Amino acid sequence: MSIAQHFATRAARMKASEIRELLKLLDRPGILSFAGGIPDAKLFPAQAFAEAYAEIMAESASKALQYSVSEGFLPLREWIAGQMAKIGIPCDASHVLITSGSQQALDYLGKLFLSPGDTALVNWPTYLGALGAFNAYEPRYDRLDVRGNRPASDYAQAADAAGGRVKFAYLSSDFANPTGETVDRTGREALLDMAEDLDCVVLEDAAYQSLRYDGEAVPPILALELARKGDLDACRTIYCGSFSKTLSPGLRVGWVVAAQPVIQQLVLMKQAADLHSATINQMVIHKVAETCFDTHVDTIRAAYRSRRDALLDALARHMPGGVTWTRPEGGMFVWVTLPKGMDAADLLARAIAEHDLAFVPGRAFHADGSGGNTLRLSFSCADAAMIEAGMKRLGQLLRG
Ligand code: PMP
C-alpha cells in the first residue's frame, strides 16, 4: 500500500523548497553561500531579548505561559497600529491580527480567497514561499503586470476560461524577494486601478519594508488606497507585516492589517488552525519593540547597506559582459540575469563542486517555470571579504 495515494489532491502541489534544501549548504565549511535569504544572526538584539524574557517571566509568568486571544496580544497590536499610522495607515487594534510570521498570513489568505481553479496574479518571479502557501489551495497563476499594460478584461477572460475568478494580486512591494526591486508610486496606483477594474483583492507583502538603505520611501499600497477611500474598512488591500527581518524570525511574529471583516474572518481561521501565536513571544516582541525598535533597525540598516554596496561594487568589477543585475534600495537581495541560454541551476552544480559557492537559481521563483537564466544573491549574511571572494569566483565560473 502506498499511503501517498490517500493524500488529498492539494498535496500534489506541495513540493520541497529548493531554498530549504540549499540552506543545508550553509553548514558546510568553506562554502561561500549567497543562497539563504535570512537575517544575520550576529545582528539580533539578543541582550534585549534576554532581558525581556527574564522580566516577563519575573513579572507576568502566569499570563505569558497561558493561552491567549486569537487576535493577538493587545499591547502589541496597539504598538503596531501606532507604527502603521507613521506610514500613512492610521488604524486601531481592531484592524490588526497577529500571525505566526507573515508566512502564516499568506497561508490564511490563500485559504480565505482561493477555491481550486481560481486565479492568483503574481510577479514572474515572486516569493517562493508565497507560491508554496497558495499552491495548497490549487490556484492557477497568471503574470501580474504592475505597469498595467495588460487590460483588466484580459486577466478576467483568462481566469474565466480556466473556470475560476481572479481573486487577488500578490506582490512584495518593497525590495522584493527575490529581485530586490520596489514598485514605485505610479506602479502602485496603477495596480490599485487594475484591482478596482477587476474587483480583486491586493495582498501587499511588506516583509522588507523597514529595510530601506537609500532613496525616498514609497507609501504602502494600503496607504494609497486609504488616501483614495478615507475608510480602512472600504479597502481591498491587505497588508502583511513581519518582525522577522527587523527583530527576529525565530519568534515567529508577524501581522495583518486590513478591513475589519477580513480581520474577523482571519481570526476564525486562526482559532481553527493554532488558536493564537505564542503568548510569550508576542509579549517579548512587544517589550523589545517598545524599547529599541528604531535604534535597532537603524543598526541593521547600516550593516546591510554596506554589504549591499560591497556586492554591487564587486559585481561591477567581476561580472563578464552580458550579465545584468538589479540595484536594490533596500532588503537582502540582488537579482542577476545571465545571457539567454545559460542555465543557473546547471551553473549552481558547478559552483558548488568547483568553486565552493552557492546562490539560488531563479527558476523556482517563476510560477511558469521560466527564468532559467536568472539567480538570486543574498547579501545579508556576507561580509566584505566574502563578497569579494564570492563574486570573483562567480565571475570565473561564468567565464569558464
Ligand atoms: N514574505 C517575504 C517576501 C519573505 O521573503 C518572507 C521570508 N523569507 C516572508 C514573507 C515570510 O517571513 P516570516 O514568516 O518570517 O514573517
Descriptive notes:
The chain has 400 residues and is α/β, with parallel strands linked by helices. Helices cover 44% and strands 13% of the residues. The chain contains 12 helices and 13 strands. It is globular, with a radius of gyration of 21 Å. The model has no long low-confidence stretch (mean pLDDT 95). The structure holds 4'-deoxy-4'-aminopyridoxal-5'-phosphate. Residues 43-394 form the Aminotransferase class I/classII large domain. This is PLP-dependent aminotransferase family protein. It holds the Pfam family Aminotran_1_2.
- Overall CATH architecture of the largest domain: 3-Layer(aba) Sandwich
Task: Please report which band the strand proportion falls in: under 5%, 5-15%, 15-25%, 25-35%, 35-45% or over 45%.
Answer: 5-15%
Helix share bin? 40-55%
Could you report the average pLDDT, rounded to the nearest whole number?
95
At the fold tier of CATH, the topology name of the largest domain is Aspartate Aminotransferase, domain 2
| Major beta sheet, strand line-up | 2-8-7-6-5-3-4
Number of helices: 12
The helix/strand series, from N terminus to C terminus, equals: HEHHEHEHEHEHEHEEHHEEHEEEH
According to CATH, the homologous superfamily of the largest domain is: Type I PLP-dependent aspartate aminotransferase-like (Major domain)
What structural class results from the helix and strand content?
A: alpha/beta
Stretches with pLDDT under 50, minimum 5 residues: none
Oligomer: single chain
* CATH class designation of the largest domain: Alpha Beta
